[in-house]
Amino acid sequence: MGLKCGIVGLPNVGKSTLFNALTSAKALAANYPFATKDPNLGVITVPDQRLDKLAELVNPQKILPTTIEILDIAGLIKGASKGEGLGNQFLSNIREVNAIVHVIRCFEDDNVVHVDGSVDPVRDKEIIDTELILKDLETVEKRLDKAKKQAKTGKKEDAKQVEILNNLLAHLSEENPARTFEVEKDFEETWKEMLLLTAKPILYVCNVDEISAKDGNEHSSKLREIVQDENAETLLISAGIEADIAELETKEERLEFLAEMDLEEAGVNKLIRSAYKLLNLITYFTAGEKEVRAWTIKDGTKAPGAAGVIHTDFEKGFIRAEVIKYDDYVALGSEAKVKEAGKMGVEGKEYVVADADVMHFRFNV
Q: How far is CA 154 from CA 128, 143, 158, in A?
């Protein structure tokens, strides 16, 4: 399944620097507002040591990791919901992403201009929140007007839609994001159709200076304090460090650099892991002589649905799935030895795929 995350934030908070570091796509990173006018799209290869280990055992012709698309969207300013700056363009671009990566400046640097004149992560977060909520209010109000007209027919379900939309409008009016609104089952279709911006899962990235990359600083602590009730992920990342890592050629060089910085792993790894958690995603593998490959699915997906990620024919004609647990594969060293040990499971349509399962699908179309 395709996964697309949108990097958002005020101008000059480090969005494009982080984007370049994550994707090596070299978007324009400059010290003035609206350096990014059009959204830049990059692709991140998802690092997975389990995929590397399987490839080591199988020795395939190709190794194919899964990927995440990253959209670097123009900086937002106050009034964006009314079209200020590049607001309308920003809000249009953000609708197409699965999750929001909100980059917030948590570092002091006199050489990098802040659009509002000072570093204040709480204020910056609230500016973005307000603009997204205002746009969602506009969307809900339009939908409510339509629902009220339909409710004149006297149908009970139309009246229920009006009631729920009024509740949602009140929720947003109190400056609460849509993601914290409890959606009733008979409202799910309307909910999906509205594509509310604040309904999207969000990951807050505190862009800190190099010294604060491990433990954070006063700015990042303030931000974490105000988002603790949002059920959102928060990460410490130094875009400057990530930019330096991106310039290194080999894995050994990158590991040595991280050790010098007293960091356990690169920020890109943390960001990807958090994005997967945010979107309730897992990875399963296929392994053969031609290729060892990682596939992304929603946690809770049954075997036919997982097969359909490879090809729709696999799902339509699904017969069974042959499943090897990753730990068994690694412990025994090959598919043949797993079979000999009686450790390969043969599963039907109701099997729920687990993270790191190694799978082979039998199908007939």
A: 39, 18, 8
